[in-house]
């Protein structure tokens, strides 16, 4: 596929990977709908670009998953259609299971899984009507294997794979594509914003995240994977090997992760 003349809707667009996608795609002759909870940040990004007339701002909260149908209608009305939905919005976690309130697990599922699913289902009739559409889902390597301190996050990301693999099969007949992107460590504020056991933000960076791929390099690889209509893409450094260790040598992966104690 090509992004030329497409309408691309990006959630979680005000920072990190989402903002990186906005900056990269704004140069690719397409129209963008950018969403997050923070309208002022979205407006600032839009107004900083040379072609603000090709960008629509649509703020909303993924946690309000019961209200996605009118949000989808607003998105369609921005430019008359949506061709690609990039489900990038979400939140991470850094806390042991024993220390994590169940309300934190629920919040992770509400935002990372149910919000993404509800938004995608709200847009699905539009894709079916047009007999074309592309869902891009930003999961994580933690959607393929797990790590301590991320139990609720891993659960939500694993769930995304189950849902969108089924969606891809059910709507192959409607020419609807699904690409699941699995980032490793990317140098964003994801660790700072991650929830700890009581639901507050961690408010500190970790070494692995700081030493991860730059947002520019990551988004370049992600865009290529979308253009190639890949089913899944694993994007990172050596941590990507965990996907294959999990598949072929799960006990070895278990020992490696325990010994590394990556936070």
UniProtKB/TrEMBL annotation:
The keyword Protein biosynthesis does not apply. Keywords: Oxidoreductase. It comes from the Bacteria. One of its GO terms (molecular function) is oxidoreductase activity. PROSITE patterns: ADH_SHORT (PS00061). CDD domains: 11beta-HSD1_like_SDR_c (cd05332). One of its GO terms (cellular component) is membrane. PANTHER family: DEHYDROGENASE/REDUCTASE SDR FAMILY MEMBER 7B, DEHYDROGENASE_REDUCTASE SDR FAMILY MEMBER 7B. This is Short-subunit dehydrogenase. It comes from Olleya aquimaris. The lineage of its organism: Bacteria, Pseudomonadati, Bacteroidota, Flavobacteriia, Flavobacteriales.
């Amino acid at each position: 596929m090509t992004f030329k003349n497409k309408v691309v809707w990006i959630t979680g667009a005000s920072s990190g990977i989402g903002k990186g996608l906005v900056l990269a795609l704004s140069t690719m002759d397409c129209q963008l709908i950018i969403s997050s909870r923070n309208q002022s940040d979205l407006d600032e990004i839009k107004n900083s670009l040379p072609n603000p007339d090709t960008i629509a701002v649509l703020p909303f909260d993924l946690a309000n998953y019961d209200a996605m149908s009118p949000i989808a209608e607003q998105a369609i009305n921005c430019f008359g259609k949506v061709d690609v939905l990039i489900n990038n919005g979400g939140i991470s976690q850094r806390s042991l299971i024993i220390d994590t309130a169940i309300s934190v697990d629920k919040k992770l599922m509400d935002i990372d899984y149910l919000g993404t699913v509800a938004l995608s289902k709200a847009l699905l009739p539009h894709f079916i009507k047009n007999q074309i559409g592309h869902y891009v889902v930003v999961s994580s390597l933690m959607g393929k294997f797990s790590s301590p301190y991320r139990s609720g996050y891993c659960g939500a990301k694993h769930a995304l794979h189950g849902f969108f693999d089924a969606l891809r099969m059910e709507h192959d007949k409607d020419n609807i594509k699904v690409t699941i992107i699995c980032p490793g460590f990317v140098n964003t504020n994801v660790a700072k914003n991650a929830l700890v056991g009581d639901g507050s933000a961690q408010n500190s960076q970790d070494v692995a995240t700081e030493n991860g791929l730059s947002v520019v390099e990551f988004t370049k690889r992600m865009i290529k994977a979308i253009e190639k209509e890949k089913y899944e893409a694993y994007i990172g450094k050596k941590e990507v090997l965990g996907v294959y260790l999990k598949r072929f040598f799960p006990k070895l992966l278990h020992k490696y992760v325990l010994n590394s104690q990556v936070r």
